[in-house]
Amino acid sequence: ILMVDEKGKNMKCLTFFLMLPETVKNRSKKSSKKGNSSSSSSSKLPPVCYEIITLKTKKKKKMAADIFPRKKPANTNTSAVQQYHQQNLNNNNTIPAPNWQGLYPTIRERNAVMFNNDLMADVHFVVGPPGGTQRLPGHKYVLAVGSSVFHAMFYGELAEDKDEIRIPDVEPAAFLAMLKYIYCDEIDLAADTVLATLYAAKKYIVPHLARACVNFLETSLSAKNACVLLSQSCLFEEPDLTQRCWEVIDAQAELALKSEGFCDIDFQTLESILRRETLNAKEIVVFEAALNWAEVECQRQELTATIENKRKVLGKALYLIRIPTMALDDFANGAAQSGILTLNETNDIFLWYTAAKKPELQFVSKPRKGLVPQRCHRFQSCAYRSNQWRYRGRCDSIQFAVDKRVFIAGFGLYGSSCGSAEYSAKIELKRQGVILGQNLSKYFSDGSSNTFPVWFEYPVQIEPDTFYTASVILDGNELSYFGQEGMTEVQCGKVTVQFQCSSDSTNGTGVQGGQIPELIFYA
């Protein structure tokens, strides 16, 4: 190889000498006929041809990622690259191609090829509990670069030289997700493995992956999984996630308590929920949820789900249920007949409801504070006219967006301008055409210009920076008050609400005037 430049002066170019196999073979035959030529002379044949290829140099040095932007490989190599990527999904597959490095232009891509690959592996992990293990290959240098725990394990003062390491407390899928992040710099999370991945990231101190897991959990948080995530967030010491879980549990308490996930929580989490002052639920719902948890807990402890065993597993947590604050009908038809209370407790609670001199109770008798709803009023004034506002099955609708996560509990609506009247209201909340909540109820207006609340069955979670559509179809007195001087943006406490017109509105409601003067929400 000769290094020259384009003019043949400076050493800035490459000259490649190419030996053709057929020509070498022919020359070898000729040399053998002469008889006086040694075997060494035939091996030192001069090149039969050469080609000069000029490679222009650049002043500024660049990394491979700058020179080769990420894009699809050429058609000739596409199948090979896809084949190697597929191999990485399977365990113990080596790369057969002799020059696989040439298929990947960047160090990141070449490093990713080693993910879950036995090629050059110098350690193996047996991951998972007994009976469900998976043997995964690893490369000590790559792992040590990605985790301080692996660094100490392989290169620390107390490092052990083991070819196989057993990890029974981590699920194989979660361990693979962590390895994929370390090798490929890619975060691949799934709803059914994200908690196990968070555990692995915490155990091996991979903070960026752990943060991604927490973000994933926050965005997928709902009433159905809030109780389970609350339990896990306390275990993993993630205060931000814990706070988000409490926000959902407080606002959508009845949905959270009725979810299947509530029965999967540990005893400490159960106690913290039953103590919660701001739990926005009827006490009979709290009582029934506790009994459901007790039944599942009996199964976990391999006990028969009898009344005695349910009370046993509940222990002192039973007295955190505020039974004396239930409506009398709820107590008489529910808690009193459940069998979970002793005869003396049942009699004392009945006396608590009816007697002037109330007995002392072990149960908490002070009602929960719950949540105070906030009201966002979007009109600066209201009015009525003899020819407005009429209702003949048409829809009043408005779109809104918030800058913080809130829970819409209902709408405030105007009533009759011609004295007292009763209205039937069908309210609806949609996002991109999908119904998130709806309810059909009645409200009574007293003829004043006040607004009257109409509630959803359960509060609806609203994500920030997305427009939602609030709609109502009213049936009742045709003439009512309506709003004027509407605002496109309203500051309500720490929440900013923006409004815009909706194409669903067929009765005249818009930003400047009409119905739905208030959004009622928890924040």
From TrEMBL:
Keyword check for Cytoplasm: yes
GO CC annotations, alphabetized: cytosol
Low complexity: compositionally biased ranges: 34-44
InterPro entries referenced in this protein's UniProt entry, alphabetically: BACK, BTB/POZ_dom, PHR, PHR_sf, SKP1/BTB/POZ_sf
Listed GO biological process terms: cerebral cortex development; dendrite morphogenesis
Organism field: Campylorhamphus procurvoides
Species classification: Eukaryota, Metazoa, Chordata, Craniata, Vertebrata
Matches recorded under CDD domains: BACK_BTBD3 (cd18524), BTB_POZ_BTBD3 (cd18348)
BTB domain location: 121-191
SMART domains: BACK, BTB
Main location: cytoplasm
Protein's UniProt name: BTBD3 protein
Key words, A-Z: Cytoplasm
